[in-house]
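sry for the spam today, last one i promise. struct tokens for design, 346 residues
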């Protein structure tokens, strides 16, 4: 049987990129393959058109369950163009010997760069400087006086891929780096030259800048809250490009009103709901969160020393390209009998 691969939830530019990337890997192989692309999600309504497919590539809006799998007797492999995979019934796939791969990471440097973009905007008063200049006011002075990052202590909460990139950038600015993580990476601390604090309270008390790079889990939800915000070092700058639920909004407001926070940079808000993968914010069928209304109505916009961006930290051309590149590698690896980035049912 001729190899058959179907990609779902892809835009026109993604289809063009995927075709070219697959052909670069193996022109002869791709010429002998049946490729189909669709901007729609895979569903019970359209699955019958793809009954002969061997490999599927989907995003999180395509729910792959028993009802779908029953219609795909030749399916052998699923690639999801996402880090998360809870839209796929892994146990049902395992019963049918269907392997599943994902995109483990794609924006670790991208999000860390955005965190520093927010920090630099606050530390050097970039936005008010631009606003003044646009109005024809070229005067400087105390109102636009910022502060150096060099020599300041930055507390990094979460030392996964993104957090470690943030640490690298902080070192480039000659900052003193401390970190907190429920599962410390001792080797990373040695290699990158930072130290772990024994607990979160210690980090909060010592940091001139706090940047969050942790997942929102029951154990991390509201890790900065009304109960501990008063223990944070006075004048601290707070940066969150991870998940809004890590910080209780009321704690941010108290910190601003009480002079605890000299500046706050947010790419995420606690009130956001339903966001599992950042790329879903770009999807044409994404309707669960109206970010425009949410941000426009948010109390934090009233503060001059608060910067809010619309959950855009992930959104670089290179990061989105890495999702496609990894997907191509996953599909190619399956056909080479050496599947990569496999995920399995717990």
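last one done:
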């Amino acid at each position: 049987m001729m190899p058959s691969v179907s990609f779902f939830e892809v835009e026109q530019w993604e289809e063009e990129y995927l075709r070219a990337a697959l052909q670069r890997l193996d022109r002869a192989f791709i010429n002998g393959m049946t490729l189909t692309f669709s901007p729609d999600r895979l569903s019970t309504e359209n699955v019958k058109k793809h009954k002969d497919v061997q490999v599927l590539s989907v995003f999180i809006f395509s729910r792959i369950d028993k009802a779908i799998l029953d219609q795909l007797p030749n399916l052998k492999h699923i690639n999801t163009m996402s880090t998360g995979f809870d839209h796929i019934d892994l146990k049902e796939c395992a019963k049918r010997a269907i392997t599943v791969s994902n995109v483990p990471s794609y924006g670790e440097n991208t999000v860390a760069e955005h965190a520093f973009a927010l920090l630099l905007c606050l530390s050097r008063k970039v936005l008010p400087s631009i606003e003044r200049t646009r109005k024809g006011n070229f005067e400087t002075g105390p109102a636009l006086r910022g502060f150096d990052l060099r020599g300041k202590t930055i507390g990094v909460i979460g030392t996964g891929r993104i957090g470690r990139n943030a640490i690298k950038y902080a070192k480039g600015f000659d900052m003193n780096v401390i970190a907190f993580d429920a599962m410390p990476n001792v080797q990373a601390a040695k290699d990158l030259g930072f130290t772990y604090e024994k607990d979160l309270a210690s980090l909060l008390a010592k940091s001139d800048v706090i940047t969050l790079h942790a997942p929102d889990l029951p154990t991390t939800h509201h890790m900065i809250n009304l109960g501990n915000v008063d223990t944070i070092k006075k004048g601290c700058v707070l940066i969150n490009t991870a998940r809004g639920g890590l910080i209780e909004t009321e704690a941010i407001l108290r910190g601003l009103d009480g002079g605890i926070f000299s500046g706050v940079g947010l790419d995420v808000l606690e009130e956001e709901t339903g966001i599992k993968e950042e790329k879903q914010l770009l999807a044409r069928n994404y309707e669960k969160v109206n970010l425009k209304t949410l941000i426009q109505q948010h109390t934090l916009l009233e503060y001059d020393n608060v910067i809010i961006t619309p959950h855009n930290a992930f959104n670089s051309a290179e990061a989105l390209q890495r999702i496609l590149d990894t997907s191509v590698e996953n599909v190619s690896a399956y056909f080479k009998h050496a599947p990569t980035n496999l995920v399995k049912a717990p």
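Residues 80 and 256 are 41 Å apart (CA to CA). ok im logging off now
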